[in-house]
Automatic annotation (TrEMBL):
It comes from the Bacteria. GO terms for cellular component: encapsulin nanocompartment. It is found in: Encapsulin nanocompartment. Keywords: Encapsulin nanocompartment. This is Type 1 encapsulin shell protein. PANTHER family: PEPTIDASE U56 FAMILY, TYPE 1 ENCAPSULIN SHELL PROTEIN.
Length: 270
């Protein structure tokens, strides 16, 4: 199905300009969407895809004919997310003339907002959208994350041990917010080794910079435990324009489910 609802053909932007905007958005958002590197991604199924099947049923509240049993399929509606931004028409026109410095700063802000809401929904949930996050669903006790990052490998080892004792195999990954990621990269453990390298060896998997995550989350990467379903993947649409600016937006639709609550452990500040 076409993406006509994005109305890109109505924007006063050349094909060359659209190619620049799309390329810059893809490069930026590919870095920021940390959750997608750690959970199962299905789709994109298209803008018209409205709900995720939960594979179960519930009794219908009322049946108008005697002797009939009616079950209703259970589904999880997808949530639509939109982030508005505006670009200078003069900047886009100058790019068409051959300018090499084009200010797309507002696009950066929209990308950051879009990534943050997705990462937060996956890891911390979004009650208003009916989404339960990994940190809400886990059945394991939190592992306390001490302020001394030199001791961080020991905390990761504790989290991995909890998962293994629950029968959850690896490899494992770690999602952390920007501040914790920087601290991990900068720290040296008590044995003189790089904390980043030591943690990676314990996990046998990646440490992922994930804006929107509070503390840290260790989770299995074996597959089948955390399910992200994309309707429309992140796309850019046109809203309107005036003499000075073109008003655009980033848009996507998705759902998220935790299939195995035992497959993640939270590292929380105490």
């Amino acid at each position: 199905m076409s993406q006509d609802h994005l109305l890109r053909h109505l924007a006063p932007i050349s094909d060359r300009g659209w190619a620049l905007i799309d390329a810059e958005a893809a490069e930026r958002i590919g870095v920021e969407l940390g959750a997608r590197r750690l959970v199962d991604f299905a789709g994109p199924h298209g803008w018209w895809h409205s709900a995720t099947s939960l594979g179960s049923t519930e009794p219908a509240p009322a049946v108008p004919v005697d002797g009939i049993t009616v079950l209703r399929r259970r589904v999880l509606p997808l949530v639509e997310v939109k982030a508005d931004f505006a670009l200078s028409r003069q900047q886009l026109q100058d790019y068409d003339r051959g300018a090499v410095a084009t200010d797309l700063g507002n696009l950066d802000d929209a990308v950051a907002s879009m990534a943050r809401i997705e990462n937060m929904a996956v890891f911390h949930g979004w009650a208003g959208a009916g989404l339960t996050g990994i940190t809400e669903a886990t059945v394991h006790p939190d592992v306390p994350r001490v302020e001394d990052f030199n001791d961080y490998p020991g905390r990761i080892a504790d989290a991995v041990d909890l998962l293994r004792r629950a029968g959850v195999g690896g490899p494992y990954g770690l999602a952390v917010g920007p501040a914790d990621y920087t601290a991990i990269v900068s720290a040296i453990d008590h044995g003189g080794l790089s904390v980043f390298r030591h943690v990676g060896e314990i996990l046998e998997g990646p440490i992922v910079w994930t804006p929107g995550v509070h503390g840290g989350v260790v989770l299995s990467l074996r597959g089948g435990d955390f399910l992200f379903e994309s309707g429309q993947d992140v796309s850019i649409g046109y809203d309107h324009h005036d003499a000075g600016q073109v008003h655009l937006y980033l848009e996507q639709s998705f759902s998220f489910r935790v299939a195995t609550p035992e497959a993640a452990v939270v590292l929380a500040r105490k």
